[in-house]
Amino acid sequence: MENEVQENRIAVIGIIVEDKEMAESVNTLLHQYSGYIIGRMGLPYQKRGMNIISVVVDAPSDAISALSGKLGRLNGVSSQVLYTKA
Predict the structure, then answer these.
(1) What are the residues whose beta carbons fall under 8 Å from the beta carbon of 27, sequence distance 6 or more?
(2) Integer Cα distance of 71 and 15 in angstroms
(3) pLDDT band at residue 1, thresholds of 50, 70 and 90?
(4) Which residue from 54, 47, 65 is spatially nearest to 9, judged by alpha carbons?
(5) pTM passes above 0.85
(6) Dihedral (CA of 54, 57, 62, 63) sign
(7) CATH number of the CATH domain containing 79
(8) Closest to 7 (Cα-Cα) out of 70, 59, 80, 72
(9) Exposure on the CB side of residue 42, measured as CA atoms within 13 A
(10) 3 within a domain of the structure (yes/no)
(11) Could you give the CA distance from residue 84 to residue 30 in angstroms, rounded to a whole number?
(12) Average pLDDT over all residues of the chain
């Protein structure tokens, strides 16, 4: 069986942080995957007491899924991935 080299994909990870106590944990995870991150934008939505973050990555699908999963397992944090078709 040959070793498969997984190609990188471009994706946007949408993150909603409803528990501000989790901000440090979110940033720690993003730092761990910083080599894959092309850019990020964070919007504090004070009216609803939450932060909305979009992160664009160029990474293997496994790394994207792992990051999104780890983020989604944090209390008060939701995460979804949107992949490019290519």
Answers:
(1) none
(2) 8
(3) very low
(4) 65
(5) yes
(6) negative
(7) 3.30.70.1150
(8) 59
(9) 10
(10) no
(11) 20
(12) 93
Query: Looking at the domain assignment, is residue 2 inside a domain?
Result: no
Residue 34 lies in a domain: yes
> Using CA atoms, how far apart are residues 71 and 56, in angstroms rounded to an integer?
15
Count of domains forming the chain: 1
Percent of the chain with pLDDT over 90: 90
**Tokens coding 64:** 């994207």
> Residue 76's domain spans which residues?
8-83
Tens digits of per-residue pLDDT, 38-76?
Answer: 999 999 999 999 999 999 999 999 999 999 999 999 999
Q: What six digits make up the tokens of 81? A: 């991935």
Report how far residue 71's alpha carbon sits from residue 39's, in angstroms, rounded to the nearest whole number: 17
Helix, strand, or coil (residue 29): helix
Tokens of 71: 């983020």
Query: Which has the closest alpha carbon to 53: 65, 10, 72?
Result: 72
